[in-house]
Amino acid sequence: MDSYLDDPRVQEKLALLNNDVLETTLYLKKGESRQAQPVIIKGEHLFPLLESLASASGDEGGSAGGKVISLVNKTAGPFEGIAPTLLCEIRALRPGQEAQPHRHSMAVLQYVLQGSGKSWIDGREFDWERGDLIVYPAWCTHSFRNTGTEPAYFLSVMDAPLVAAMGQLKVLPPEESDRAREKRQGMPSARYRDFPRVREAIMKLENEQLGVFTYLDSVDPPTSIDPVIIRWKSVKPLLDALLEVPVQEDPRAGRVIGFYNKKLADVRGVTPGLMAGFQVVPPGRRGLPHRHSVTAIQYIIEGTGVSTIEGQRFEWETGDIVVTPGGCAHDLSNRSESHPAYILGITDLPLMRYMRLLTVEEL
Description:
Elements: H1 8-17, E1 39-41, H2 43-55, E2 67-71, E3 87-93, E4 98-104, E5 108-114, E6 116-121, E7 124-129, E8 133-136, E9 142-146, E10 152-158, H3 160-165, E11 171-172, H4 177-184, H5 196-205, H6 215-219, E12 228-230, H7 232-243, E13 255-259, E14 275-281, E15 290-292, E16 296-302, E17 304-309, E18 312-317, E19 321-324, E20 330-334, E21 341-347, H8 349-354, E22 360-362
Antiparallel strand pairs: 1-19, 2-3, 3-10, 4-9, 4-11, 5-8, 5-10, 6-7, 6-9, 8-12, 13-14, 14-21, 15-22, 16-19, 16-21, 17-18, 17-20
């Protein structure tokens, strides 16, 4: 059947709209989203690279501090992420080296692979060491320093590709409080709904499902998300306790715990777009195959195993990073019959929940 886009009369009118910026088409003709491919980054290659970065001359990234490398999945779309919604970076910071205060529009989860130091986030100080996970919410002013005697290595996951897709990827210097106050000056103190006739009309429109907001309501800052640090020395005992529990909540995976900011309880995220969790896979445990819309980046803290993702077999061990894009059929097994596997997982679960895109399918 011919498309109505091929009708000469329609083409004539479309030609009047098309220009160097605007293209008129039928969006669904472009097809469904392309599936990003899974990937594994081997620790045996990752850590020698970090060692080389720590001793290399020169710096890139300005206020970012240290040496940073982005890990880009060539099949993940135009915004250079490890997956369509997530960016993965590694960083090396020499002893005494510091990232200068800055802020940016993407949220960051920073996992400490090696070393110890301090982070300053919106005026709060956090000490960190190997195994800790630091949550930097979007737009928080932050800096960090290696206070130890050895290089500090980090694995960072952020929602930068998603933010870039919305045209809002920005890195800025710290915001001065006086300047922020100046921006808010000139706003009217009264609002539309303060006037009886307007308020009455709004009340007639609103019901249990529908609300009405006006301009000043829309520019009110949302509830702030607090920075937090998740300490490995407190997580590990919980994972070990889970090993002794006879109940298996999820037969598709190991024993999993997730963390969320209590201000984001509905989406289960430590930030609006990122979830952090840990899992322990008992010796010899094999998970059931399944798929879900959530993208998962897994760092193998300790152990050996295998993940089968879209029919590809990925053998992993301590120090490896396994990336399972959303929509991929996969399963995970612990190859050891005597030792559990401990895994850090960072996902875009909150985004999928908020947009009502979360799906889980057993295979």
